[in-house]
Amino acid sequence: MPGADVGRGKLLLAQYQCGSCHQIPEVAAARGTLGPALESYGRRSYIAGQIPNRPDALARWIVDPASMKPGTAMPAMGVSEADARDMAAFLYALP
């Protein structure tokens, strides 16, 4: 993702407490089990089981998941578009 900051994305995932629901490698205290574990995220084919996994789609998903999949359990957390790009970049960089 051009202009995205992977390191900042890692910090933002902790700041927005994404680990309350997800296990996220390299993010302290990200041990949630309500949502899917996010290791090797860039190798996945779909977001939420139905949206083609592309960086731009993941950033939109992080900002407003219900607009992409009505009824999803993932809440909108008030993430800005810029923050979402950084968060998506970190997730795509996971091994």
Describe this structure in words.
It is a single chain. By secondary structure, this protein is mainly α. It has a single domain, classed as Cupredoxins -  blue copper proteins (Immunoglobulin-like). It is built from 4 helices and 2 strands. A hairpin with a 3-residue loop joins strand 1 (46-47) and strand 2. The model has no long low-confidence stretch (mean pLDDT 96).
- Classify the fold: give the CATH topology: Immunoglobulin-like
Radius of gyration: 12 Å
* Secondary-structure element string: HEEHHH
Mean pLDDT: 96
Number of strands: 2
Number of helices: 4
Largest sheet: 2 strands, antiparallel
Low-confidence stretches: none
* Strand order in the largest sheet: 1-2
Which class of secondary structure composition applies to the elements? mainly alpha
Q: Termini separation (Å)?
A: 17 Å
Helix share bin: 25-40%
Give the tally of structural domains: 1
What amount of the residues lies in strands? under 5%
Which key phrases capture this entry?
single chain; 95 residues; mainly alpha; Immunoglobulin-like; two-stranded antiparallel sheet; 4 helices; 2 strands; 38% helix
Spell out the blueprint of helices and strands:
Layout: H1 6-15, E1 46-47, E2 51-52, H2 55-63, H3 65-68, H4 81-93
Antiparallel strand pairs: 1-2
Helix pairs in contact: 1-4, 2-4
In short:
With 95 residues, the protein is mostly helical.
